[in-house]
Amino acid sequence: MKNLEQLYLDSNNIGDIGAISIAKNTAWTGLKILSLKVNTIGELGQSLSEKNETWVNFEELGLKTIIKLATLTLKQNTIWQNLKELRLRGNQIGDKSALALGKNESWVHLKKLWLFRTQIKSDGIKAIQRYKVERG
Hints:
There is one protein chain. By secondary structure, the protein is an alpha/beta fold. The chain has a single domain (6-128), classed as Leucine-rich repeat, LRR (right-handed beta-alpha superhelix) (Alpha-Beta Horseshoe), CATH 3.80.10.10. It is built from five helices and five strands. It has helices at 16-23, 43-49, 71-76, 94-101, 122-128; strands at 6-8, 33-35, 60-62, 85-87, 112-114. The chain has a five-stranded parallel beta sheet with strand order 1-2-3-4-5, with no helix packed on it. Strand 2 (33-35), helix 2 and strand 3 (60-62) form a beta-alpha-beta unit. Helix 1 runs parallel beside helix 2 (43-49) and helix 4 (94-101) packs parallel to helix 5. The longest helix is centred in the N-terminal third of the chain and has 8 residues, at 16-23. The protein is globular.
């Protein structure tokens, strides 16, 4: 499992306990893609996964229908410097959380940022405009 690069766990009813178990895994040093869409992960499970310092090769994260998106910890995440794609569609992000996302200066390789159905309005859009992303 050390060579695992992609892990798709969509629609598995994973909650905070499952997310914490995933986040504590330090064997997946080559993990590039993690998709946890349509699960019930709350702020606790999500914030712990963002602190995993093993996932330095991380390139893509998919989170959809999270109970509460912990964008304040996303803002502080400096570990995922290779992040190329962040899929946050369907999460209730809003302008306040978009402002926090816009403050992350570590994601210099980010090319795709999926934010449809996230309740972001003009202030939030202004905050994330600094990302030079592709339309997708």
